[in-house]
Amino acid sequence: AVFLHRPPTALRKELEELREESRRLEEDTGPEDDAVPAAAYVTQLYYKISRIDWDYEAGPTQVKGIHYGPEIAQPIDIDSSQHSRCFVSDYLWSLVPTAW
């Protein structure tokens, strides 16, 4: 899959839509369900920013997923037991575009 760069206004609109959806979910749920909409909102927000679709079935030391970058989709497969947490964090942040 190819990810095309979207203008900043499109990203802002998507983030506003996520906020509005989160507000609606919070209104539709009771106090005992507060964590679910918040978690769903945060997960969607992380995806919108990072464009990483995580493989949640990967082993405990594997950091796996697909990054939908500005040009091509790129698989991520890092054995975290072979790299420092700082390296893994720096690598993942390097995938996030800084131009908004």
What does this entry look like structurally?
The protein has helices at residues 8-28, 35-50, 85-95, and strands at 52-54, 62-68, 73-79. Helix 1 packs antiparallel against helix 2 (35-50). The model is unreliable at 1-6 (pLDDT under 50). It is 48% helix and 17% strand. A 3-stranded antiparallel β-sheet has the order 1-2-3. The protein is an alpha+beta fold and 100 residues long. It has 3 helices and 3 strands; from the N terminus they run H-H-E-E-E-H. A hairpin with a 7-residue loop joins strand 1 and strand 2 (62-68). The longest helix has 21 residues, at 8-28. The protein is globular, with a radius of gyration of 16 Å. The two termini are 21 Å apart. The protein has one domain.
The sequence of SSEs as H and E is HHEEEH
In whole angstroms, the N-to-C terminal distance is 21 Å
Q: What is the number of beta strands?
A: 3
The secondary structure category is alpha+beta
Contiguous uncertain segments of 5+ residues: 1-6
| Spatial shape | globular
Q: Could you give a short account of the major beta sheet?
A: 3 strands, antiparallel
The percentage of residues in β strands lies in 15-25%
Rg (C-alpha, Å): 16 Å
Mean pLDDT reading: 79
Q: How helical, in percent, are the residues?
A: 40-55%
Strand order of the largest sheet: 1-2-3
DSSP helical segment count = 3
Whole-number tally of structural domains: 1
